[in-house]
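Page 42, continued from yesterday. The earlier attempt failed because a stray header line got pasted into the input along with the sequence. Redoing it now with the clean sequence only.
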Amino acid sequence: MTGALAELLTDTVDGGASVGFLAPLDRAAAVAWWTERCEAVAAGRLAVWTAWEEPGRVLGTVSLALPDKPNSAHRAELVKLMVHRAARGKGLARRLLTVAEEAAAGQGITLLHLDTETGSPAEHLYRTSGWTEAGAIPDYAADPGGVLRPTTIYYKRLPVTPRQGRGEPRDRGPGGGALESGRAGTGR
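This time it went through. C-alpha cells are written below.
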C-alpha cells in the first residue's frame, strides 16, 4: 500500500499542492515517508483513509493526527488531504473530508484543526464545509517550487455522536501492524 500512497504523494507535489515537500519529489522518498507513518498508525496516533480505483491505484487520502496527551483528547488535526490530479473536481476531497469528520465525531473528538496554504484551492473546500478561519501566518512554508507562502489555520467544532460510524479509526491504542485504512467511495 505504501507504494500506491507514494504515487499519490508524488502526483500531489508535482501538481503544485503544498503538502510539506519540494518538487520534484523522488518516489523512494515518498515511499519512505509513508513507511514512517506506519508506526504512528500502529500506535494509534494517526488514522488514514484512502479512496481506491481498481486495480490498486489510490485516488485520494486523508489522515487525522490523534492526540497523545490527556488534555487534548477532545481534538485532532486533519492532515494530508490529497486527491490525485486525475480525480480532482469530482467531489472526492469533500467525501474524504466527511469520512474523517464523521470518524472523529464517532470517537468523541469535538474539535478539529488544520493548516493549508493561503489562497490554495483547498481553502474553498474548507470554507464551504463549515470550517472557520482562525488566522494566517506569513511565510509559513515553502510551496513545491521552494517559494515561501503563508498558511491559514482553520478549525471545526464537531457534535458528539453516540455511534461510531463507518471509517472510524480502527485502533487508538497500542498494537497494530501495517498502515490501516478505511475506504471513501470513489463515486463510480
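Notes: The helical segments are 2-14, 27-42, 92-106, 121-128.
Reminder to self: strip header lines before submitting.
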